[in-house]
């Protein structure tokens, strides 16, 4: 699952980390009582409280009551911690069952709900996502679409389209969580109604029922996919 996002690592920890690299290294043998699971759970708590900017390796070590060198034995950089934290929260997304459309809908809705519980996560999903929890759910998503008949470029487009839609929705909602910011933006548009008549007429920045809006868009997306299956081959031409 991926979408374009900004790199959010590096500051507050050792520099030189490469997003996703943590999944390509062999785990180091333990030499102390500290566990990687405890590090990641503590990091998620810090991220939930203070966001990416509030997570530093020193703060994480302090919260774990260990010296920084002990922490660095398990994770090399802040990028490692962010990649591990993103994968950890995906464990909260249940893997559903049932007909492909119902299963995909259930998965995507749970994915979005998880990101909204952890609003720091949507911008990080442009990073290489190679952790087991992310890959298991990506495998399920693509497998469900493949079972419906999608192959090749059509399968890739459907998978990435759904991923980008859910990440974009969560990113937008987590960004516009402040009523003050939303009110300022609406006033800005209304003051320029001659330039943006359609946006103003349709109250583009109205305080929306975000859940209902997303579910309606998701149903449109899935209906389009289902109609594509019924109208002819959904495999790539030779």
From TrEMBL:
Superkingdom, taxonomy of origin: Bacteria
Q: Ranges for the HTH tetR-type domain?
A: 33-93
Q: Per UniProt, which keywords does this protein have?
A: DNA-binding, Repressor, Transcription, Transcription regulation
Region described as Disordered: spans on this chain = 1-22
Q: Which Pfam families does the entry link to? A: TetR_C_1 (PF02909), TetR_N (PF00440)
Does DNA-binding show up as a keyword for this record? Answer: yes
The record, for SUPFAM superfamilies, names: Homeodomain-like, Tetracyclin repressor-like, C-terminal domain
The answer to whether the entry has keyword Transcription is: yes
Q: Where is the composition biased (Gly residues)?
A: 7-19
Q: Which residues bind DNA?
A: 56-75
Q: Which InterPro entries match?
A: DNA-bd_HTH_TetR-type_CS (IPR023772), Homeodomain-like_sf (IPR009057), HTH-type_TetR-like_transc_reg (IPR050109), HTH_TetR (IPR001647), Repressor_TetR_C (IPR004111), Tet_transcr_reg_TetR (IPR003012), Tet_transcr_reg_TetR-rel_C_sf (IPR036271)
Q: State the name under which the record lists this protein.
A: TetR/AcrR family transcriptional regulator C-terminal domain-containing protein
């Amino acid at each position: 699952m991926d979408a374009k996002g900004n790199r959010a690592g590096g500051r507050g920890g050792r520099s030189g980390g490469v997003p996703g690299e943590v999944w390509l290294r062999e785990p180091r043998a333990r030499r102390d009582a500290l566990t990687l699971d405890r590090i990641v759970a503590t990091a998620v708590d810090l991220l939930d409280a203070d966001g990416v900017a509030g997570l530093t390796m020193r703060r994480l070590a302090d919260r774990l009551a260990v010296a920084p060198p002990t922490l660095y034995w398990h994770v090399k950089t802040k990028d490692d911690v962010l990649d591990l934290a993103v994968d950890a929260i995906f464990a909260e997304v249940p893997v559903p069952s049932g007909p492909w459309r119902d299963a995909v809908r259930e998965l995507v809705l749970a994915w979005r709900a998880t990101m909204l519980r952890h609003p720091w996560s949507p911008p990080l999903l442009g990073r290489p996502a190679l952790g087991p929890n992310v890959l298991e759910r990506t495998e399920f998503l693509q497998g469900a679409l493949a079972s419906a008949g999608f192959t090749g470029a059509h399968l890739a487009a459907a998978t990435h389209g759904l991923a980008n839609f859910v990440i974009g929705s969560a990113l937008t909602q987590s960004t516009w969580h402040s009523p003050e910011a939303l009110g300022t933006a609406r006033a800005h548009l209304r003051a320029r109604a001659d330039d943006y008549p359609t946006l103003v007429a349709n109250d583009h920045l109205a305080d929306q029922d975000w859940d209902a809006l997303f579910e309606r868009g998701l149903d449109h997306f899935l209906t389009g996919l289902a109609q594509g299956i019924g109208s002819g081959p959904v495999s790539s031409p030779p």
